[in-house]
Amino acid sequence: MQALTNRIQHVDRKPLTFMERLYLPAILKGMMITFSHIFKKKPTINYPEVTRPFSPVFRGLQILNRDEEGRENCTACGLCAVACPAEAITMEAAERLPGEEHLYREEKYAAKYEINMLRCIFCGLCEEACPKDAIYLSETFTPADYQRKQFIYDKQDLLIPHPIEEPEAYKKALGNRAKPSAN
Amino acid sequence: MLLLLDVAMLLEKLVLITIVVMASLGIAMYTTFAERKVAAILQDRRGPNRAGPFGILQPLADGLKLFFKEEIIPNFSSKALFVLGPGLAMLTAIMASAVIPWGDKVHFFGRDISLQIADVNIGILYVFGVVSMGVYGIMIGSWASNNKFSLLGGLRAASQIISYELAMGIALIALLMVTGTLSLKEMVVQQQQGGWGGLLGWNIIKQPLGFFIFIICAFAECNRTPFDLPEAENELIGGYHTEYSSMKLGFYLFAEYINMFVSSVIMSTLFFGGYDMPFVNEAALSPNVAALVGIIALMGKVVFFLFLFMWVRWTIPRFRYDQLMHLGWRILLPLALFNMLLTGGIILYFNK
User: pLDDT tens digits for A14-73?
Assistant: First the structure.
C-alpha cells in the first residue's frame, strides 16, 4: 500500500528470541530501574514544615492595612469593590465620630468590609485600585474550613494586627516583603 | 527430678513460643510499614512520615483503625465459616514458625536452651503441611462470603497455590537429596561447614536452580505480585476478602505478611545458611554471643528477602491467569523435575 506520509514507523514483529522468552533479563533490568529510583531526588516536600519559596509578586489572601499608629487606612471609597472583577468585595461606610481618631485615619471608614474568598480570584486589582494603601495581598494562602460561610472574611479576619499592641503578630503579618516604611 | 526437668522444659518452650509469636506479629506489623515506605521510595515519594518520628507509629495507627472499624458479617454468608476463614489463615501463618531454628542455643540458668521451638526430624515437611493448610483459610473465607468475586478469588488462590506447591516440592526434593535430612536444624549445621568463611557451604551454591524455582514458588504461595491474582483489585474488587471488614480483614492482610516473613526465614534457612554468619567462627564465641550473632545473621537475610518481595512487587506487573498456569505447570514443573534428575545423577556419579 502506498504510504500516505513519511512518518510511518514499522513495528518489529519478530518472534522473541530465547533470551527474551526467558524474561529474566528483562525482569532484572526492570528491577534495576526501580532500584535506581531509591537514589533519585524526591520532588515532594514536607509541606507544613517546609514551604516552597514564593515569587516576590505572589498574591495570597488580602489583608487590611493600618498605619504606624495602628489606625485603619481604609476610607471605604469603594474603588476596590469597583475594580474587583469577581465582585467579591462588599463594604459599608460610616462616618468617624469625635473620639475615634485613634481608630481610623480618615474621616470616613468601613464599618463593614467583607471579601468572599470563594469568589476572589486573587488578581490583585483591589491592591492596585486602593488610593490609601489600605489593602494588600499577603503571602498567606490555602485556608481550609468546613463551611462555605466561613470563607466570607469580615473585617476582623482581614485586618492586620495592631502594630503597637501586638507588635510580634504585626511583624509576622507583614512577612518578609514588607517595605521598610509601609504607607 | 525428672518432673522438675519437664516443668523447666515446658516453661522454656512456652517463653520461646510467646517470643516467637510476638516477634512474628511485630515483624509483620513493621513489614506493612516497610512495604509502604519501600513503595514510596521506589516511586520517588516520601511514604508515611506523620505518625511519630519518621512515621514509625504508623503500623499502630493502621492496626487501631482496623480494630475500631465496624465488624460486618454479611446476611447471606455462612457465619461460622466466615469467621473461621481469617482465623485459619492467621493460625497456619503463625504455626509454620514452630520448626524454624532461630539460632543455635543460649545458656541461661545453667541450662542450654535451644532456640528452636520443636526440632522435629521432618521439619520442612511440617512447614509444607502447615503452609498448604493456609489455602483453606482463603478458600473457606471466600466461599463463606457467598459472593462471586470472593469465590473467584478463592478459586484462583487454591489452584495457584496447589500448582506452585508442586514445583516447590520437587525443587525441594533436589535439595533434600543434597542435604540428606529433613530437619531444618541439621541443614543449618551442615551449611555452617564450608570453605571461604562458610559461604561455600550454603546450599545456594549446590542448588542455584532449585533456589530459583523455590523463590518463584514462594512468591506465588504468598500471593504476592506478580502472582497476586487472588486479590487482584482491578479484576475482582478485593478478591477473597471482598466481604471482610475490620480486624477480620486485618487478619487476612496480616497473615499475608506473616507468610512473607516465614517464607523469607525458610529461604534463608534452606539456602542461605540460616543463622550462620559468614566469616565468623561460632564455636569460638561463648554460646550466648554466638546465638546473638546467629539471630542477627538470620534477621539480616530475612530483611533482604523481605526487601526483595517488596522490590519485585513494585517492579513487575501481574500475570494473566493463563500465563500464571503456563508458568507453573509447563515451565517451573519440568524445570524442577530436570533439576531433580540432574542432582540425582550428579550424586550417583560421585558416589559410585
Answer: 888 887 777 888 888 988 998 898 888 888 888 878 878 878 788 888 888 888 888 888
Cell 523455590, residue?
B214
What is the overall mean pLDDT for chain B? 84
Q: Which long-range contacts (CB under 8 A, 24 or more apart) does B59-63 make?
A: B59/B29, B59/B30, B59/B32, B59/B33, B60/B29, B62/B32, B63/B29, B63/B250
DSSP secondary structure code for residue A66 in this structure: B
Interface test with A, best of B35, B38, B43, B44 (most A CBs within 10 A): B44
A64 close to A157: Cβ distance less than 8 angstroms:
no
Contact B239, B149 (CB under 8 A): yes
Which among A30, A40, A42 has the least Cβ separation from residue B46? A42
Phi, psi of A143 (to 5 degrees): -75, 150
Helix (H) or strand (E) holding A79, with range, is helix A79-83
Specify the amino acid at residue B290: A
68-107 in A: which are within 8 Å (CB) of B? none
Evaluate whether A165 touches A66 at the Cβ level (below 8 Å).
no
| pTM of the predicted model as reported, rounded to 2 decimal places | 0.79
d(CA A149, CA B100): 63
**Phi-psi map region of B183: left, alpha, beta (phi>0 left; psi -120 to 50 alpha):** beta
Q: Which of A61, A64, A81 is nearest to A144 (CA)?
A: A61
Cell numbers linked to A31: 528491577
Cβ neighbours of residue B267 closer than 8 Å, sequence gap 6 or more: B211, B214, B215, B218, B305
Confirm or reject contact between A121 and chain B (CB < 8 A): no
Cα–Cα distance, A132 to A178 (Å, whole number):
16
CA dihedral (B264, B268, B274, B279) in degrees, to 10, reads -130
Count of A-B CB contacts under 8 Å: 32
DSSP state of A104: B
CA distance A139 to chain B (A): 25
Percentage of residues of chain B with pLDDT beyond 70 = 97
Residue type, B266: I
ipTM of the complex: 0.74
CB contact under 8 A, A37 and B43: yes
Cβ–Cβ gap B44/A35 under 8 Å:
no
CA distance A14 to chain B (A): 20
Measured between beta carbons, the chain B residues lying within 8 angstroms of A27 are 315-316
Per DSSP, the residues of B109-172 read: TTEEEES-S---TTHHHHHHHHHHHHHHHHHHHHHHTT-HHHHHHHHHHHHHHHHHHHHHHHHH
d(CA A61, CA A75): 20
